[in-house]
Amino acid sequence: MQITGTVKIDKKTKNLAKRIGPGEIAVIDHVDIDEIGAESLIEKKILAVINANKSISGRYPNLGPSIIDKAGIPIIDEVGEDIFDLLKENDRITIIDNEIYKDGKLIKKGKLLTHDVINYKMEECKENLEVELDKFIENTLEYAKKEKSFILGNIEIPDVKTKFKDRQALVVVRGKDYKEDLYTIRQYITDVKPILIGVDGGADAILEFGLTPDIIVGDMDSVSDKALKQAKEIVVHAYPNGKSPGLERVKSLGLDAHIFKAPGTSEDIAMLLAYEKGADLIVAVGTHSSMIDFLEKGRKGMSSTFLVRLKIGSKLIDAKGVNKLYRENFRLSYVFSIIFAAMVPLSVIAYFSPPMQQLLKLLQLRIRLLIGF
């Protein structure tokens, strides 16, 4: 294998995906490449991935490397963090198998993640999953005790201008299959016109769908300036101690924002906001709700998510994966079956109605006259 191309460098995959282009080589520092990160790179039609860290650490079966491999994109793994000192943005390099060359000189070696290597590592991950699950459960329960204020309501909810009373809310997170799920429920969005809440990058997902977010909730680390400027309101997620890293960015754009001090994830507080403000129904798209989802986000537990869903469960509909219900190809026979099914009761009703009986008798008499009976 030999590949030559220009590099784009960023330790955060989600930031790199915003500016890398087709035919370029991604240089990242990403332990356990997740599905979303993998798909964001594949969409840009890159040539290769050079990872300073372990794409598969063995903690759990992360699917990112398998997805990248399936797309035919090679991964050079564990090259070391000094790769960021040896390369600059837009440097031109050549990859030969597991070796990286710049200006004809070998600068680094890594591990080429072939299909067989990835499969072997994934099997090891499955064996370790039970250990990780035990840790995950323990952490979830431990922090649930500390974060029980989510249930008791001892959290100050920001006074937003958007009116939720007697309306439905759609919370969009840029998670797995979010595009497909949004497309599947497009008629619901058109008919109901729910309040659109984008969680960080989920606001850009709403824009991509041709809509404008009513509220953006998050720590503002992955949402675009464009989305922030177009949103009607912004709610910055702050730590319980009041520290709010995202507020400075919002202010630098000359925008105002509400502060929501709470533990947990931004998608949790987005749902909690809609619930506490009186939304009739909360529909969630792309949210994180499984152990693998949370491990991919680097979290050791899901206490806040567990508690929030426990509180708002009666009003929550999770649309994650709803597109899979509608993947079967459309068949014309379905239309005829529906028409036939509808015609049967109509025909029976029509046959037994007096006006229809009179019409049938007249038609019968007409036919007899025509044929000479």
How does this model look, in words?
The protein folds into 3 domains: 2-120, Phosphohistidine domain (Glucose Oxidase, domain 1), CATH 3.50.30.10; 149-325, Rossmann fold (3-Layer(aba) Sandwich); 333-371. The chain has 16 helices and 15 strands. The protein has helices at 13-16, 35-43, 64-70, 83-86, 115-146, 149-152, 178-184, 186-192, 202-208, 225-230, 245-252, 266-276, 291-296, 303-312, 332-352, 354-371; strands at 2-9, 24-28, 48-51, 75-77, 92-96, 99-102, 105-109, 111-112, 168-173, 195-199, 215-218, 233-238, 258-261, 281-285, 316-318. α9 (202-208) links the parallel β10 (195-199) and β11 (215-218). α2 runs parallel beside α3, α5 packs across α14 and α12 (266-276) runs parallel beside α14. The radius of gyration is 28 Å and the shape is globular. The mean pLDDT is 82.
Keywords:
373 residues; alpha/beta; Glucose Oxidase, domain 1; Rossmann fold; 3 domains; 16 helices; globular; transmembrane; Put_SteA-like
